[in-house]
């Protein structure tokens, strides 16, 4: 399934114990109610608290033979309006939303003026920025690097290397938009890279990649501006 | 001052007694706190519960000599993030945000697919619509008419005549947008006109204007999609 969500009021994607509301937890609870069986879903990417998704992908196994279109409709009638299932299809048994994904694309929306309307879906930075300069800094990220310096400490992953295939800033209406694609991302990595390209030089960013040492004073950008935009698969799955 | 607000969590523009939160009430409370005097502000238009504004205008009198830029900054630091003062300037004593306004412009955003992100700022209608047909219906509204049939019954106004100078539907990205300008609007009028042009013929709309009788089954569109877009004044005020 492809899922769009407004992450503002969720403690991120990943299911948590207790009364904490997460996107995965909400969808699993509704699936259990519809299918009358325990269902565990796998997301292609884990988003942090407050981060949104336009095209999160997730897969699950079920013994039910309910038709996919009907299940999608039932899910949307029972889920909160902040989570919408955009599509749901049957896939081969060897498809896995996480392991079958070849790439993840994120977008960060940055507004440069106060806004009551866009505050929920954008970060705010009143400083003026030169697009060429931002893109020259962003280009340093392309290729395979160790991004340990740009991840939340304590993330337990086997490796901190990622291959970035796209990293660019562009203007869209009144927003500055950062778009980045990679085979994988570390925890909070995109938000660190947004702040880094806005505030630090290409040399400083390069040095952090090589040294694996965080840049002093670098804080992750406001999660409100971040969207998991699209997951790339080899075929339609 | 020009005000942008996310109306989702407010009971409309107009101040109300009791614990009900309104945009006017919030701004007046903060102004009183900053200026240390009772301040009553006048808005150019009153928006219903849940309706947003990109360019609401409001004026007030004060005995304070605080510099406008500083006052604007103080207001934004104390107001909730769902209300932002975009600008604030000194005006002549005979300026009145409501009576000096020559025109009001509203926009209605209609999405045609489910969306977790845009639900807060758009109405939803999955039916497909022909833009030419919508605009042919909208053209019936142009000029001076009695809009009693398209207003909330019980609105107490001296007259129900309004002069509409612009009424059109257009596409903007994935949205259908209705834009309408008039010298004045009746309560809930834009939301009734949105539903009317989407669902009823030009003849039915014309007949309702002439007969002053509501169209049977016509309900106002979801307030989430409506924005008070801009107020027109003769000069910069």
Automatic annotation (TrEMBL), chains A, B:
Q: Which family does it belong to?
A: Belongs to the tRNA pseudouridine synthase TruA family.
Active-site residues per Swiss-Prot or TrEMBL entry: 48
Protein name, per record? tRNA pseudouridine synthase A
Where does this protein hold substrate? 106
Q: Keyword check for Transit peptide, yes or no.
A: no
Concerning InterPro entries, the annotation shows: PsdUridine_synth_cat_dom_sf, PsdUridine_synth_TruA, PsdUridine_synth_TruA_a/b_dom, PsdUridine_synth_TruA_C, TruA/RsuA/RluB/E/F_N
Q: What is its EC number?
A: 5.4.99.12
Q: How does it assemble?
A: Homodimer.
Query: Which SUPFAM superfamilies does this chain map to?
Result: Pseudouridine synthase
Give the domain of life: Bacteria
| PANTHER family registered for this protein in UniProt | PSEUDOURIDYLATE SYNTHASE (PTHR11142), TRNA PSEUDOURIDINE SYNTHASE-LIKE 1 (PTHR11142:SF0)
Q: Which UniProt keywords apply?
A: Isomerase, tRNA processing
- Say yes or no: keyword tRNA processing present: yes
Molecular-function GO term, any one:
RNA binding
Recorded coiled-coil stretches: none
Q: Which HAMAP family match?
A: TruA
Can you give the residue ranges of the Pseudouridine synthase I TruA alpha/beta domain?
Answer: 2-100, 140-233
- What function does the entry list? Formation of pseudouridine at positions 38, 39 and 40 in the anticodon stem and loop of transfer RNAs.
Gene Ontology process terms (BP): tRNA pseudouridine synthesis
Q: What class of enzyme is it?
A: isomerase
Q: Which reaction does it catalyse?
A: uridine(38/39/40) in tRNA = pseudouridine(38/39/40) in tRNA
């Amino acid at each position: 399934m492809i899922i769009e969500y407004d992450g503002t009021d969720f403690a991120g994607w990943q299911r948590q114990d207790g009364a904490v509301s997460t996107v995965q937890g909400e969808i699993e609870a509704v699936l259990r109610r519809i299918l009358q069986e325990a269902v565990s879903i796998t997301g292609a990417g884990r988003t942090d608290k407050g981060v949104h998704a336009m095209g999160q992908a997730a897969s699950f196994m079920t013994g039910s033979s309910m038709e996919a279109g009907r299940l999608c409709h039932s899910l949307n009638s029972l889920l909160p309006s902040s989570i919408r299932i955009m599509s749901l299809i049957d896939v081969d048994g060897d498809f896995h939303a996480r392991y079958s994904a070849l790439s993840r694309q994120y977008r960060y929306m940055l507004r440069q003026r106060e806004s009551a309307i866009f505050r929920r879906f954008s970060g705010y930075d009143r400083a003026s920025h030169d697009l060429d300069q931002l893109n020259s800094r962003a280009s340093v990220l392309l290729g395979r690097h160790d991004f340990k310096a740009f991840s939340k400490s304590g993330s337990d992953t086997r490796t901190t290397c990622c291959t970035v295939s796209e990293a660019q800033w562009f203007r869209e209406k009144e927003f500055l938009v950062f778009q980045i694609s990679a085979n994988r991302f570390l925890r909070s990595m995109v938000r660190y890279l947004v702040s880094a390209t806005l505030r630090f030089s290409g040399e400083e960013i390069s040095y952090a990649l090589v040294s694996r040492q965080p840049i002093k004073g670098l804080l992750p950008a406001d999660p409100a501006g971040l969207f998991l935009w699209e997951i790339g698969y080899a075929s339609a799955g």
